[in-house]
Design a protein that fits this description.
This protein is an all-alpha fold. Helices cover 77% and strands 0% of the residues.
């Protein structure tokens, strides 16, 4: 893989992992469109490591407070918002992680990456989830902010991540933000909780596949690109959602899905 390709894919990962538009779809489709070699598993892990660094650094103060609060709640019996949210994240992540492992393997056997059925599945998922995201975001009321998220809401949003593992193109951030909005969580809080929820899931995925990691100039460029773009995307989305909606992302998903569908049919 060339340094140029690594740079482009790193930028794509940084943009699409954190926006509700599916990084797996983009990382699978762009090399296919430009007739590049298939992305090695080791490079895919490197790109996810870059976005993991971005999320961890951006929310470093939050995570320190969350871990401290979670520890104090158990050891010192001190209740706090941070302690509550830490254990909500733990409880929401465990079933989602286990279910994702099972569904990911099942999905890979049904939709072999690079096959025509995989591309069609990605296109359909992009379009369908784009419609669902648009409708849900438009109709949902913003009744709950980050501080008021309940255990039930936290768990339902967490478990929804498994759907992204089952169907390529759904998008982990897309499904979690959509479910959060359907439960009445405001847009900015839905995005923040989705980002925090993604940290342990991505960390576990990187850790499990660490033996496949390889160091090269292309890999370093890919990691740096996904990291730097990821930082900018998180800030952009949280600021944008204070007044904006998910409409633009829903429309993009539908257009991109239709493009993939047409290309899959004519190639």
């Amino acid at each position: 893989m060339s340094v140029f390709q690594a740079l482009i894919l790193g930028i794509i990962q940084g943009l699409t992992e954190l926006l509700p538009i599916s990084s797996s779809a983009h990382l699978a489709v762009f090399p296919w469109i430009f007739k590049w070699e298939e992305i090695p598993e080791s490079f895919d892990i490197a790109l996810h490591f870059g976005t993991l660094l971005a999320i961890s650094l951006f929310f470093i103060k939050d995570w320190i407070a969350l871990i401290k609060g979670g520890f104090n709640q158990v050891v010192k019996k001190e209740k706090s918002l941070e302690g509550k949210m830490f254990w909500y994240l733990v409880i929401a992540t465990i079933p989602a992680g286990l279910l994702s492992l099972v569904l990911d393997k099942l999905s890979a056997s049904i939709f072999p990456e690079g096959s025509k059925i995989f591309l069609i599945a990605v296109a359909v998922a992009l379009i369908v989830m784009g419609i669902v995201l648009y409708v849900v975001d438009k109709k949902a009321k913003a009744k709950t902010d980050y501080e008021e998220i309940s255990l039930m809401q936290a768990v339902l949003v967490g478990i929804s991540q498994a759907i992204a593992a089952a169907f390529p193109g759904v998008s982990r951030s897309g499904i979690t933000m959509t479910v959060a909005r359907s439960l009445g969580i405001d847009r900015e809080s839905a995005a923040k909780y989705s980002f925090l929820l993604s940290t342990p899931i991505i960390f576990a995925a990187v850790l499990v596949s660490l033996d496949a990691f390889q160091l090269s100039l292309a890999f370093v460029i890919g990691v740096l690109a996904s990291f730097l773009v990821g930082i900018m995307v998180i800030k952009f989305l949280l600021d944008y959602l204070k007044k904006g909606s998910f409409k633009i992302f829903a429309i993009y998903r539908m257009i991109f899905g239709l493009v993939i569908l047409v290309l899959a049919m004519i190639r």
